[in-house]
């Protein structure tokens, strides 16, 4: 596999890494990763949510040693964030899911593999010894989803994450504007922009176009050809899925189950009632329903109704260590990153991913020192104050 393209000395934060990825990826690929639904209101709102909360630092505490570690589902992790599931990460870098899993293991943070990964779930599991998580869609073909659960169990995944906010695909308008399709094809509109990214083209030529490897056999059986994979996958998104289906799949798993894609306190309560061990408060990074609220909006109330028994995870919009601290103060146990580590992969493979993780750990350590909190457990509601729209900068 091609080595990363140079050091990241000029990448000081995750926005810098996003810009590095934008320079190195074809526009259609970058926009597929970076884009969101329709007017992208939710995506912008996801960033503004953090401006509505200001820090209340406490001084004269001993913060000479900062401890970022957290315990989630019985496992000790080195920081309160992990790498969330992202479909077809191989568009950013060949076999990116394997790189993401390995870098997460090195950093001792959680990694969750997408159902729609460009590497077979068994191969990702074989690449690490870490207790990885597996994300599942409940497809129209329930037997296909059941088979994925059985494969994940056999491969040793420790946590099942069921995504429930995709009854249909979001309307991501950047994709048709860039003639982005899967399988990838060259058009007059995108060929010039792709041609000036020779590194990406060379990797594509060497490794082939990524496809959702976990579904290849099912698609062949249904459509007679792997070329129908994406159409097959889209046809499997099922608007008839209900809590009854979720309850069945919770029963199929032997360990913790997390329900991902909730924005309602009532849905958080329902997930707990059905036996879920955790939830992910998420608007899917703004990629599904445009205009959906952001996680911090519902987080304090979700924590109140959930108590301490339910693990509460957030994603959508996180870019800074300070963002993670605000979520912790409002009741989150963990934050998952989606686009951020894909920017790192797109900018330079494994070294780019590692640099993203390093930046976040460094920002967390510095901010906790200044806030007066020596451990993650010390971060509490008293450390943030709601500013509302007045906090926007």
UniProtKB/TrEMBL annotation:
InterPro entries associated with the record: Aldolase_TIM, Alpha-hydoxy_acid_DH_FMN, FMN-dep_DH, FMN_HAD, FMN_hydac_DH_AS
Protein name as annotated: Alpha-hydroxy acid oxidase
Gene Ontology MF term list: FMN binding; L-lactate dehydrogenase (NAD+) activity
Domain of life from the UniProt record: Bacteria
Keyword Thylakoid applies: no
Domain FMN hydroxy acid dehydrogenase: 6-389
Cited CDD domains: alpha_hydroxyacid_oxid_FMN
Active site as annotated: 284
CC cofactor: FMN
Lineage: Bacteria, Pseudomonadati, Pseudomonadota, Alphaproteobacteria, Hyphomicrobiales
Binding site for FMN: 85-87, 114, 135, 163, 282, 315-319, 338-339
Transmembrane region(s): none
Pfam families: FMN_dh
EC assignment: 1.-.-.-
UniProt GO cellular component terms: plasma membrane
Sequence similarity: Belongs to the FMN-dependent alpha-hydroxy acid dehydrogenase family.
Annotated glyoxylate binding sites: 32, 137, 172, 260, 284, 287
Organism: Microbaculum marinum
PANTHER family: 2-HYDROXYACID OXIDASE 1, S -2-HYDROXY-ACID OXIDASE-RELATED
GO annotation terms (biological process): aerobic respiration
Keywords, comma-separated and alphabetical: Flavoprotein, FMN, Oxidoreductase
């Amino acid at each position: 596999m091609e080595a990363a393209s140079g050091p990241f000395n000029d990448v000081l934060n995750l926005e810098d890494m996003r810009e590095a990825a934008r320079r190195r990826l074809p526009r259609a690929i970058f926009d597929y990763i970076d884009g969101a639904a329709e007017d992208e209101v939710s995506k912008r709102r996801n960033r503004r949510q953090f401006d509505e909360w200001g820090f209340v630092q406490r001084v004269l505490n001993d913060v000479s040693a900062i401890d970022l570690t957290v315990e989630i589902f019985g496992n000790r992790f080195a920081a309160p964030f992990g790498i969330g599931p992202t479909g077809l990460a191989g568009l950013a870098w060949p076999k990116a899911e394997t790189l993401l899993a390995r870098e997460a293991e090195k950093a001792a943070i959680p990694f969750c593999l997408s159902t729609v990964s460009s590497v077979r779930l068994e191969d990702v599991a074989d690449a690490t010894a870490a207790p990885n998580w597996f994300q599942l869609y409940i497809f129209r073909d329930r037997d296909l989803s059941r088979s994925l659960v059985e494969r994940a169990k056999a491969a040793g995944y420790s946590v099942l994450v069921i995504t429930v906010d995709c009854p249909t695909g979001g309307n991501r308008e950047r994709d048709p504007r860039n003639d982005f399709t899967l399988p990838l094809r060259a058009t007059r509109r995108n060929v010039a922009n792709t041609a000036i990214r020779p590194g990406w083209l060379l990797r594509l030529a060497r490794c082939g176009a990524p496809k959702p490897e976990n579904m290849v056999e099912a698609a062949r059986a249904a459509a007679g050809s792997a070329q129908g994979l994406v159409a097959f996958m889209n046809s499997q998104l099922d608007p008839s899925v209900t809590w009854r289906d979720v309850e069945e799949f919770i029963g199929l798993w032997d360990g913790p189950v997390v329900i991902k894609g909730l924005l309602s306190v009532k849905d958080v309560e329902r997930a707990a009632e059905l036996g879920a061990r955790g939830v992910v408060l998420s608007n899917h990074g703004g990629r599904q329903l445009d205009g959906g609220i952001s996680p911090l909006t519902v987080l304090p109330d979700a924590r109140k109704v959930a108590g301490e028994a339910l693990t509460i995870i957030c994603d959508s919009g996180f870019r800074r260590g300070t963002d993670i601290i605000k979520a912790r103060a409002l009741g989150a146990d963990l934050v998952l990153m989606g686009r951020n580590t894909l920017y790192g992969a797109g900018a330079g493979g494994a070294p780019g991913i590692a640099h993203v993780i390093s930046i976040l750990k460094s920002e967390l350590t510095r901010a906790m020192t200044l806030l007066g909190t020596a451990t993650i457990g010390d971060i509490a509601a008293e450390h943030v104050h709601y500013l509302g729209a007045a906090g926007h900068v």
